[in-house]
Write the structure tokens for this entry.
Amino acid sequence: MQAAHTVRNSADTVDAAGALLRDLIDYAGLFPPASLAMAASVANYDAYSRSQWNWILGRFIAPVVRLGEFEEAFAGLPTPARGTGLTNWRLSVLLGSDPLADVARIHEFNARMAGSSSSRRAVVESVEVKVTSAEEVARLSGIIPAELAAYFEVSLSSCAECIAAVAECRRRAKIRTGGETADKFPAPESVIEFIRLCAVANVPFKATAGLHHPLRSVYRFTYQSESPSGIMHGFVNVFLAAAFLRAGMETSIAIQLLEEQSASAIHFDLDGVGWRQHRLNRHEIAAARQGFAVSFGSCSFAEPIDDLRSLHLL
């Protein structure tokens, strides 16, 4: 992956790589394969929010049942120096088996945070939930308040009807792009079909799992030394494919982009990105990110950043 100049990615970045990366990575340190404790995850997010790469950092991800645990760890953070870190943390929470109780818990949490005298607050701004049918999408959408963005994680075997229901409810979709074993990684054709359906229905989406690295390649599935390895999707592949699909790329070509493993085939410059003979300008990239391809959840923030730096995108 190449840049035509020294890339100026920062909080006020204006180049094409920055348009792709801004606010991209939701931090999910609580989840496998990292599976960190709450205090460690909260401390990490606080450190990332004060780093030079904080403009890439998205939401903190937690199960709704652990909001009390989060609140305790959050309150225990040292008072930030003026002008450092985030004063308002954005949370996305995973709903459990009792969505009515979960919504009540979210309301109580947000109300406490709004009334806090602390210089640093947190707010749940979105929820995420697995669904198995269009009927379940409609039922849960009626429970989740409109002010909360709702991401419905759909099964790729039934994603057409579920995405249609998500569109009908004016909600958002979610795709699982990996896991700790090879069978958890969906085929490129399935990923592109999910994105295509979201584009046609004008449904924003996010991704989760298995996207620790910018480019598709062979990696270990976990952080254990004996972990098996296999092909993993790259987050640059996924989000570029989404932007190109939104701009009218044929699905067969988008599949090839998702399968791209050569860094030299993708070329960022100030005004856009080129992949082989195809090109998008930075305004098309920014538009896709702002209203369509929202973010991805990762249990690591440092690993994607390190890889981006090695590719000279940061």
Observations:
- The chain has one domain: 2-310.
- The domain at 2-310 is CATH 3.20.20.70 (TIM Barrel).
- The chain has a mean pLDDT of 92.
- The two ends are 12 Å apart (CA to CA).
